[in-house]
Amino acid sequence: MNVRLKEWVAIKSDSGDHTKWGEVETMLNMAAERIKKMGGKVELADAGTHQLPSGETVLLPPVILAEFAKDPKKATLCIYGHVDVQPAKMEDGWATDPFNLTEIKGNLYGRGATDNKGPVLAWLHAVESYQATKKIPVNIKLIIEGLEEVGSYGLFKLIKKRRDSFFADVDFIVISDNVWATTTPALTYGTRGSSYFFVEIEGPKLDLHSGVYGGSIQEPMADLIALLGSLLDHTGKIQVVGVSDDVTPLTEDERKLYDNISFDLEEMKNVVGVKHFLQDTKEEVLMARWRYPSLSIHGVEGAFSDPGSKTIIPRKVTGKFSIRQVPNMDPPDVERKVKEHLEQVFSTLNSPNRLKVTATVGAKPWVANLQDSQYVAGQKAVKDVFGVEPEFIREGSTIPIAQTFQEETGKSVMMLPISGHDDGEHSQNEKISRYNYIEGTKLFAAYFYELSLLH
Amino acid sequence: MNVRLKEWVAIKSDSGDHTKWGEVETMLNMAAERIKKMGGKVELADAGTHQLPSGETVLLPPVILAEFAKDPKKATLCIYGHVDVQPAKMEDGWATDPFNLTEIKGNLYGRGATDNKGPVLAWLHAVESYQATKKIPVNIKLIIEGLEEVGSYGLFKLIKKRRDSFFADVDFIVISDNVWATTTPALTYGTRGSSYFFVEIEGPKLDLHSGVYGGSIQEPMADLIALLGSLLDHTGKIQVVGVSDDVTPLTEDERKLYDNISFDLEEMKNVVGVKHFLQDTKEEVLMARWRYPSLSIHGVEGAFSDPGSKTIIPRKVTGKFSIRQVPNMDPPDVERKVKEHLEQVFSTLNSPNRLKVTATVGAKPWVANLQDSQYVAGQKAVKDVFGVEPEFIREGSTIPIAQTFQEETGKSVMMLPISGHDDGEHSQNEKISRYNYIEGTKLFAAYFYELSLLH
């Protein structure tokens, strides 16, 4: 079955450069052909247009909407996946050609092997395995896009547009586009949201020589440092008043989920290269990453950032930070509180400079209900195939797709990863292990079966 | 006389690129020939070698050491100047060819017109004007270099080496390589020194995704912001304990010097584009720029600094700031106090990260004694030529040459600018006005005369 994965990985469907979206379309067509050969009905749905930062408007590659013959007595499962990839070049430090799937010691190396071509093929293989033997126990729909790595342009509008048609009879939506937290299979039931902030301080008309003017100017950089310094204390606690008020309280049931996770704190310290985390126990560290908000200061634009020394007073500087958000925080509410906080601190500086705070439209956090039959079925399927209880995990990073599906369609959404925690998605030497690829395919098949029993 | 300046400006003696130092040598040879034609004795003194950042060792262009026939009864004045220039290209926004001296409405535009080819020629013209009529009233020596704009490589060693030979019989050293503070002629009696600091915080092994790790990591950027934020309060006061202890107290005589300076605070607000300075009065603003220390935060290396957004936790960040120093601050002492301060603040952060503070070798501040006969002579010469009292000014920026001459030779040093405050040295459309060039030449001639009377 890795012959197909080799064919798919060979297509350089990097979506990062819009002038190369032809390769993305080639990849989408190849996936569409495969589904048709399996008897699926495929629509290459128009995803509309997108305006580039340059102002140019470009036509988006289509989105695959596919379905197999329907039995009205069975539950309908919609599977999401994507067939575009991150950029990859040998020069980046790959040990093998990233577009030539190469097996070394049980691992299949190649760009897209785990993110997300491997899992998409695993879903198709699971469907095929039923087709070869008996009737598939659930109705299958597929939504496959080619722009996930750049932000799924056009997809969310399409989902909204097809809510009452393609999605009307869908009972469950499943996504396999993330990784296990450890070596134990997992079900993912939450992702954090995020808002990104730009704090601009504009002062003098022009950059000034610090020798000539230093001491007489209230420097924009000093104002900015004071503002950024007011956001966090050294324990990582966000100092913006009220910003963490809406965090869902931890229940005893939820706390217990963390006990079962085979996360090794000492190993993680070595992997990351830190002497200690901000928290002392495994559970606290995972909760800090998954179920509590965080604030990271990413950098400063407009100040001197090259190696060496330069004695400039920059006239305009923009600090950048983001806040990862968790249920039930509301990004617009967080943005309002952050702006109020920064304006309040700025007012104490008696500065002649101008403050402007902007935020990108925040992505909402997502959390699922573990009582949904999907999660029960997923848990049973993991036990069937791997003989262990799955870990119930969250993602600290933003994966807007789950939240969007849940919000736009009102359906139950689950993330069912089959990728290993060390697969290196987005990195050099991305891989999926032969074990995860094959057992993952079995997991998907078992999941169809368990889901049908519960429906 | 601007024919000669036109010839000199035409030589592209930009010292910034060592592969083009041939042009610098051409310029030095042209200056040497001119001095020889005037009857001067010229040595092209070997300045030694210099190691480039690449590790390559290069031979330095020579330094002109020249002298005219000596009368042991007269005082000996050594004039410093440089004939190299900053880079200049039409594309940078010049209105005229920077290497073709062009007169527009009484201004002579060209690279080096004011910094420093014009003033060097003005000195030679002042000598020539005496030669044409009567004996020059002081003995003249010249030291002219070609690497000022890159840091006078080799010069300071040469000065030390020639202390007991070339400089042995020198009574006064005069430098005309800066600008007036206003439209009134000035004598410059001080420059600030400077130390440049690098505050490196190193944390995780690799840059981390703020979604995945945010909340669990004590981020190097947060540590750095806390450290940088501890350096200054919002009034510009340096918060490092003891760092300002050695600042020479302001005397009433010194305070009075500021009353006479025709600096227009409102105009300066417009030029710089600020609503207010950190100080309220002209005198306070000038003192803040000239006679008190200042601290400027220049930027951060290693954090995200491009436009747009990126959600990285940078693994290693280096904050950069400098402290402008004034008499009697001592750069090594300041550096020690800054390091202690940063280490103390860092210890309160309970951080798993590593702090490393380094400083470049600091340039010392310089201040002259206004009772020196040079300053008395300079003051009289300004009155002779311009009919006004000079402004006694300082430079907030570092001009190491004055301090070096004073320290290495033990001689009296004065800075006697003839360049206008709006000449745009180092900038596009650098110029010297015909007025400043001609009256400046007269000022130099009058200065020779007044100095001879006082000796």
From TrEMBL, chains A, B:
Where is each Peptidase M20 dimerisation domain found? Answer: 189-345
Keyword vocabulary terms for this entry: Hydrolase, Metal-binding, Protease
Name any GO cellular component annotation. cytosol
| Gene Ontology BP annotations | proteolysis
TM ranges are none
Q: Which GO terms describe its molecular function?
A: dipeptidase activity; metal ion binding
Q: Which Gene3D superfamilies match?
A: 3.30.70.360, Zn peptidases (3.40.630.10)
User: Which PANTHER family does UniProt cross-reference here?
Assistant: BETA-ALA-HIS DIPEPTIDASE (PTHR43270), BETA-ALA-HIS DIPEPTIDASE-LIKE (PTHR43270:SF16)
**Protein name, UniProt field:** Peptidase M20 dimerisation domain-containing protein
Q: Which organism is it from?
A: Esox lucius (Northern pike)
Q: What is the lineage of its organism?
A: Eukaryota, Metazoa, Chordata, Craniata, Vertebrata
- Name the gene behind this protein: CNDP1
